[in-house]
VOC family protein
Amino acid sequence: MFITAVHHIAIITTNYQVSKTFYTEVLGFSIIAETYRAERDSYKLDLAINGLYQIELFSFPEAKERASYPEAKGLRHLAFAVTDIKAVFGHLQQKGITPQPIRVDGLTGKKFFFFYDPDGQPLEMYEQ
């Protein structure tokens, strides 16, 4: 296998417009493309993170519920690297997000915290 990178991360949303606002206006990701697929009654929003990574947001009318807490089986959480954890923490609070307290990773000594997107998906900010 010759895997060179993660290509994208796909997230299915409950409320497309709310999630679009969260990921673009709160987290600051830029829109690459937005597509409406009439045959699926579904939106697909391609977002760029710092020009290196891509998140795809989807809306599906009949999406099934999934457990959504950091210790659930399956994908645990999605973590984003930041340079100033306190500034990001404050920014999220100003946008009406209630992050969990900042903690220190016992293995690396780095600061991090968890918070949730509009669908309750666990997200992490990790200071580099």
Q: What stands out?
A: The radius of gyration is 15 Å.
